[in-house]
Amino acid sequence: MENIISRSTTKSGKTVSFHYPTIDDAEILMNYINKLSLEKTFLTLQGEQQTLEEETKWLKSFIEKINKSELVFLMAFIGDNLIATSHIELKDKIKSHIGGFGITVSKDYRGDGIGKKLMELVISESIEKIKGLKIIELEVFGDNPIAQNLYKKMGFVEFGRLPRGIKHKDKFVDAVLMYKNI
Questions:
Q1: Total Cβ atoms within 10 A of residue 109
Q2: pLDDT of 2
Q3: Residue 33 burial by CB count (10 A; 0-12/13-18/19+): exposed, middle or buried?
Q4: In terms of Cα–Cα distance, which of 117, 127, 119, 86 is closest to 103?
Q5: Closest Cα partner for 46 from 37, 33, 36, 35?
Q6: Which of 65, 70, 118, 137 has a CB 3.0–4.6 Å from the CB of 179, allowing a cystine?
Q7: CATH architecture of the domain formed by 4-133
Q8: So where are the chain's domains?
Q9: How far apart, in whole angstroms, are the C-alpha atoms of residue 106 and residue 39?
Q10: How many angstroms separate the most distant Cα atoms in the chain?
């Protein structure tokens, strides 16, 4: 694997490597996101499946933004198995000081410390690489208290809710908005 920026150990003792993507990761990312989508977990995708063409196009746009220092995107692997991803993407124009945060963790590794470590890394990389970043914001499902608690522990503060702003598993839940000053 190329671009390894860090290694860590999970709570269960497994070694995790963290790195930036290359275009060769498109199929790995497609398989990963499609598996998560089928879970209908706390993602935008709720069962939809990405094609390799769609994933490659998406990844190319992310790599272009990484090269322009507008985005940090990290992938976490145990061996050759992709287990988590996270990113901070700089907004543009009047919001060019704000980065939008996102994270995914594979079902088998939730609660094993991966999310926290990945958040720490993506935030520190973003502070270093995304010039002008002052605020990180995120949106979390109202019915995901585990993620909300992690974000609070990482210094994020709730600044609003959109009642019934997310449709999750055929019911409407609040979209909880959070931010962290850098």
A1: 20
A2: 55
A3: buried
A4: 86
A5: 37
A6: 137
A7: 3-Layer(aba) Sandwich (3.40)
A8: 4-133
A9: 10
A10: 44
